[in-house]
Amino acid sequence: MAQDNIKLDILAFGAHPDDVEIGAAGVLIKHVQRGDRVAICDLTLAELSSNGTVERRQQEAQEANRIMGIHARFNLKLPDRGIAISDKQIAPVVSLIRQHQPRIVLAPYWKDRHPDHEWTSRLVREAVFNAKIRRYHSELGDAHQVDYVYYYFINQFESPDLAVDVTDCYELKQHALMAYESQFIMENESVITPLNQDYVQRVAARDQLIGQQIGVRYAEGFKVREPVQKDYLD
Q1: How many other CB atoms sit within 10 Å of the CB of residue 214?
Q2: Engineering a disulfide at 140: which of 21, 88, 95, 108 sits with its beta carbon 3.0 to 4.6 angstroms away?
């Protein structure tokens, strides 16, 4: 999968491979099908996961990429359970944003039972802000201002500020999730975790509930921290 200096429409960040798929695979697939350039960045290799190896999870991520049709996937190899707000960790996120100049950035919702998801949300917010400051690590590239930052749900769920109909591509979302067999399927060597106890079904139930709120079968919901600027209501 090419990882050159392509300019992106959407760059979605997650702490671990499968995070983005849980919250936003449908939206990413929908944008890919429209012709937009979409990429994912996992901050860690999920090396502390209870199930699966780093190698297997990378293979699963590649299969999920194929199913979704995304243009690139990056991994910053930050320490699993070691994500923190520091210049050392903000800088590589800024570098990626400046290199690929996305219009839209996605990040996990800032409230979640997993601390890595919350830290990722905070780290991406810091990086998006710093990426537009031209004197912040100018060696990382020209300053770039992201148009919109939307926060997707992983474990926590609240009433969304924005909901996107993903009914037509929901089957592909489920296939992308099930690419992560080591996480979502109980195998002979598996340790019981919340992920392999009907988690994918609960994700679908959440997306159905969001869909019900806007009168469609499935929708993915997003939160925003600041008002979204529009010239007109439509």
Answers
A1: 13
A2: 95
